[in-house]
Amino acid sequence: MKRIAGRITAVMRSNTIIPIFLGVFLSASLFVGNFFSLENFINILGQNAAKGVMAVGMTFLILNGYFDLSAGTLMGLASCLLVGITPSVGLFAAIVLMLLLGLAVGTLNGLMVTKLKINAFIVTMAGMTLWRGLTFIYTEQTIRNTSKGFYELSRNSFLGLSYPVWLCLIFVAAGQAVLRYSRHGRNTYAAGGNMNSAKNAGINVDRTVIINFAVCSLCAVVAGIMYASKFNSASPTLGWPDAHMLAIAAVVLGGTKLSGGYGNMLYTFGGVLVLGFIDNIMNLLKLSSYYNTLVFGIILILVLYMDKVLREKPAYNIPDKHNSDDKHATEKEKK
Predict the structure, then answer these.
(1) Which residues contact 69 (CB under 8 A, 6 or more apart)?
(2) Do the strands 161-162 and 157-158 form a parallel or antiparallel pair, or are they unpaired?
(3) Is the peptide bond before 314 cis (omega within 30 degrees of 0)?
(4) 138 phi and psi, to 5 degrees?
(5) Which residues pair with 234 in a beta bridge?
(6) Nearest-CA neighbor of 121 among 54, 199, 65?
(7) What share of the chain is helix, strand, coil (3-state, %, to 5)?
(8) Which of 223, 198, 242, 248 is nearest to 60 (CA)?
(9) How confident is the model at residue 6, as a pLDDT?
(10) Is the dihedral of CA 185, 46, 217, 302 positive or negative?
C-alpha cells in the first residue's frame, strides 16, 4: 500500500499538471453550479480547440528552449487574409496559401535564430509587431466571411464533438506521436536538454530548431483558420494582446520546462483544459474578465514555483562522448 501511495506521489510531483487539473476540476464540480455537465464540458472543448492547436506548436518550440511571441498576431493576420482572399481564389486555395504562409514565416524565424544568431525573443517580438501592423494595413475593420460551407465546418459535429475539437485532438495525438516515436521528436528533446551534447552526438540542431519554428507558425495559422470559421468573420484584433501568452501558459501548466528538454503534448492539452476550466468558471460565476487575468497570473507563479521546488527533473539528455570518456578515465585513476 505504501509503495502504491509512493508511486502516486512521485507521479504527482513529476507531473504538476495532474494535481492542478484534479484540484480545479473537483473544486469547480463541487462548488460551481452548472459546471459538472456533459454539455458544459463539450462547450469547454469547443471554446479552447483553436488554443489547443496553437499550444501544440508552442510545445515543440519550448521543448527546444525557445518560444514565439509572434504566434498570436500571425494568427490574426492569417485569419484576415483568408477571409479577404477567399472570394477571389476560392476557399481551398486560400487555406493552402495560409498554410504555406505559416511555414514560410516559421522557417524565416528559425533561420534568423540559428543562422544569423539573433535572439529568439527579439526575432519573434519584431514579428509580433510586424504582423499586427500588416493586418491593420490590410484591413482596419472586421471582414465578413462569404463562404457558407466554411462557416458550417465549425458547426458540424461527429460523435457529439464539433469538427474543430476533433482537429485539435488530432493535432495533440499527432504531436505526441512525433515526440515519442520519431527521430525528430528525440532530436527535439536532446537539443532542448543539452544543445552541445546533441551537436556532439551528430544531431543537426539547427534543422531541428528551424522545423519547430515552422511547426509553431503553422499551428498559429491553423488556429486563425479555425477562428475565422467559428466566428464567420475575421477581426484585425484577433490574437492581440495575449494569445501567444495563453499558449505559453498552457504549455508551462502542462509541465514543460521553459529551459527545454522536458514535457509532452498530452500534459500540454491538460494545461489548455485547466485554462479553459478557469475561464468557464469565471463566466458561470458572472465575474469580470479582469479576474481571469489575475487568476492566470497567480497560477503561473504557482506552477513555476512547483516546477522549481517539486520537480527538479533532469532534461532528456544525450551523453557527451568526451565527457563520458573523461569520466571513465577519472574512475580508473581513482582505482
Answers:
(1) 121, 124, 125, 127, 128, 244
(2) antiparallel
(3) no
(4) -70, -45
(5) 143
(6) 65
(7) 75, 0, 25
(8) 248
(9) 65
(10) negative
* Distance in angstroms between the alpha carbons of the first and the last residue of the chain: 42
Could you give the 3-state DSSP secondary structure of residue 125?
Answer: helix
Domains of the chain: 46-317 (1.10.3470)
d(Cα 221, Cα 68) in Å, to the nearest integer? 13
The residue type of 210 is: I
Distances (CA, A) of 91 to 37, 103, 227: 36, 19, 15
SS3 158: strand
For residues 166 and 31, give the distance between their C-alpha atoms in angstroms, rounded to a whole number.
30
CB-count exposure of residue 158 (10 Å: 0-12, 13-18, 19+): exposed
Give the per-residue pLDDT at 306: 62
Taking the C-alpha atoms of residue 148 and residue 150, their distance in angstroms, rounded to an integer, is 5
Question: Residue 206: which of 111, 121, 119 has the closest Cα?
Answer: 111
pLDDT at 262: 85
The C-alpha torsion from 42 through 48 and 52 to 53, rounded to 10°, is 100
Within the chain, which residues score under 50 in pLDDT? 310, 315-335
Local structure of residue 35 (DSSP, 8 states): T
Angle, helices 120-138 vs 91-114, to 10°: value is 150
Q: Are 134 and 240 in contact (CB under 8 A)?
A: no
Query: pLDDT value at position 212?
Result: 96
- Residue 26: CA count within 13 A, CB half-sphere: 6
Distance, in Å, from the CA atom of 289 to the CA atom of 266, rounded to the nearest integer, reads 28
Length of the chain: 335
The continuous run of DSSP H or E covering 143 comes out as strand 143-144
How does DSSP assign 200-260, residue by residue?
HTT--HHHHHHHHHHHHHHHHHHHHHHHHHHHTEE-TTTTTTTHHHHHHHHHHHTT--TTS
DSSP letter for each residue of 263-320: --HHHHHHHHHHHHHHHHHHHHTT--HHHHHHHHHHHHHHHHHHHHHT--PPPP-PPP
